């Protein structure tokens, strides 16, 4: 079982849910300045997704926990991140599979799914741990504008 304390995110919504998961994936960071990380290596990524909103759907869910897992775990588990060419690139640093970029892209994938639902929930935080000593927190609405 994954049990961890996460940083909390400030937001104006009534409901907040969190989904934990892990996935095993390989990657390399295609830059000389990444040192050893430019070689192919693997991680068991630990991911915490925070979704918030004011309205529930017809099932009484903000979003189905299992749908969040399906979107990310099914896509990335036991894959080579760099091979996901629609998401990552060896040419564009904003698309290198660094922890920062993976966190943002995971958020974008979840938000694209949420945008297709009538209750319009928001992915407000991604916590992505790459190693026991390294993690990133991504907050898409850090400026406070939730597009309401
Ligand atoms: N800002 C970032 N820095 C680094 C990233 C990254 O994605 N963003 N990635 C790496 C490597 O891919 C590596 O997987 C993780 O590096 P590091 O935390 O240094 O790994 P260690 O387990 O060796 O850490 P120790 O605490 O020294 O044991 C590097 N940097
Ligand atoms: Zn790595």
From TrEMBL:
Gene3D superfamilies with a match to the protein in the record: 6-pyruvoyl tetrahydropterin synthase/QueD
GO molecular function: 6-carboxytetrahydropterin synthase activity
E.C. designation(s): 4.-.-.-
Catalytic function, reaction form: 7,8-dihydroneopterin 3'-triphosphate + H2O = 6-carboxy-5,6,7,8-tetrahydropterin + triphosphate + acetaldehyde + 2 H(+)
Cofactor note as given: Binds 1 zinc ion per subunit.
Cofactor needs: Zn(2+)
Pathway the protein contributes to: Purine metabolism; 7-cyano-7-deazaguanine biosynthesis
Keywords linked to the UniProt accession: Lyase, Metal-binding, Queuosine biosynthesis, Zinc
Family: Belongs to the PTPS family. QueD subfamily.
Protein name listed in UniProt: 6-carboxy-5,6,7,8-tetrahydropterin synthase
């Amino acid at each position: 079982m994954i049990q961890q304390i996460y940083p909390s995110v400030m937001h104006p919504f009534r409901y907040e849910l969190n989904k934990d998961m892990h996935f095993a994936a390989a990657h390399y960071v295609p830059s000389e300045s990444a040192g050893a990380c430019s070689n192919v290596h693997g991680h068991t990524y630990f991911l915490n997704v925070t979704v918030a909103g004011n309205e529930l759907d017809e099932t009484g869910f903000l979003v189905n926990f299992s749908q969040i897992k399906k979107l990310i775990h099914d896509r990335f588990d036991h894959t080579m991140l760099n091979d996901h060419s629609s998401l990552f690139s060896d040419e564009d640093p904003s698309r290198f599979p660094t922890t920062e970029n993976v966190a943002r892209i995971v958020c974008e994938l979840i938000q694209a799914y949420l945008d297709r639902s009538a209750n319009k929930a928001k992915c407000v935080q991604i916590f992505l741990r790459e190693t026991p000593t390294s993690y990133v927190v991504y907050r898409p609405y850090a400026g406070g504008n939730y597009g309401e």
